[in-house]
């Protein structure tokens, strides 16, 4: 036989806390999930997401061996392999004159319509630098 | 896997592979693998006077890691397809 006070406590607990159930973080609604999914697609969380913002835009790429590229970014992956369109490649060389020992800085330019670039040569990726 | 799929679609097209040692080889893309190793057929070195290395070589296997650029045919693949595939790859990664 339950004693009086314990039944009383039981009833109090139920009546007091029952209305507070709406505070429980119950299942997320379907609309909440959809919103979070679309936010995930456009959220900038890591450095590769910054590059994603430059898709179909012109970018500047600094490569190893004193090379630079300026072109339109069509595709990239996590290794920074890239496909660029309408690319200008600039190769910078320093020649030392045998007699005067002066350094001659030479920039060789070349245009390539459509280029795959292997990611292991990439140093940095940026929007194109605007030189006045 | 994005570029692996892209190169698989490009098999049979003429490409120019520029290596990290400045050698440029023009040939028909025969096959590619997940490491982007490339097999070229009917190859010719681009600047034959400067690089008299492979005058008699007509088919070659190129290790993916020695590639600097691959010059692609401009009408290679649909650009929109590339953009969509990139967005999907970026999200999943």
Please name the defining characteristics of this protein.
heterodimer; A: 132 residues; alpha+beta; SH3 type barrels; 5-stranded antiparallel beta sheet; 3 helices; 5 strands; 25% helix; 39% strand; B: 93 residues; Sm-like protein LSM2 (chain B); RNA-binding (chain B)
Describe the 3D structure.
The complex is a heterodimer of chains A (132) and B (93). Helices cover 25% and strands 39% of the residues of chain A. Chain A has 132 residues and is an alpha+beta fold. A five-stranded antiparallel β-sheet of chain A has the order 4-3-2-1-5, with no helix packed on it. In chain A, a hairpin with a 3-residue loop joins strand 1 and strand 2. Chain A starts with a helix and ends in a 6-residue tail after the last strand. Helix content of chain B is 24%, strand content 34%. In chain B, strands 4-3-2-1-5 form a five-stranded antiparallel β-sheet. Chain B is elongated, with a radius of gyration of 14 Å. The relative contact order of chain B is 0.23. At the A-B interface, helix 3, strand 2 and strand 4 of A face helix 1, strand 5 and helix 2 of B.
């Amino acid at each position: 036989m339950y004693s009086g006070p314990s039944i009383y406590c039981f009833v109090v607990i139920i009546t007091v806390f029952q209305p507070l159930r709406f505070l429980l973080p119950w299942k997320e609604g379907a609309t909440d999930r959809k919103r979070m999914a679309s936010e995930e697609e456009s959220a900038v969380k890591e450095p590769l997401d910054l590059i994603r913002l430059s898709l179909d835009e012109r970018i500047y790429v600094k490569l190893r061996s004193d090379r630079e590229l300026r072109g339109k970014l069509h595709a990239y992956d996590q290794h920074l392999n890239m496909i660029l369109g309408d690319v200008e490649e600039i190769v910078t060389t320093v020649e030392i004159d045998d007699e005067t020992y002066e350094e001659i800085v030479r920039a060789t330019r070349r245009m390539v319509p459509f280029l795959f670039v292997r990611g292991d040569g990439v140093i940095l990726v940026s929007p194109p630098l605007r030189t006045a | 896997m994005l570029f692996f799929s892209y190169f698989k679609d490009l098999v049979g097209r003429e490409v120019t592979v520029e290596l990290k040692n400045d050698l440029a080889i023009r040939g028909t893309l025969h096959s590619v693998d997940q490491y982007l190793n490339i097999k070229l057929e009917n190859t010719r070195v681009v600047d034959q006077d400067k690089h008299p290395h492979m005058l008699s070589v007509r088919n070659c296997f190129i290790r993916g890691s020695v590639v600097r650029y691959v010059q692609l045919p401009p009408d290679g693949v649909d650009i929109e397809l590339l953009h969509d595939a990139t967005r999907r790859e970026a999200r999943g990664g």
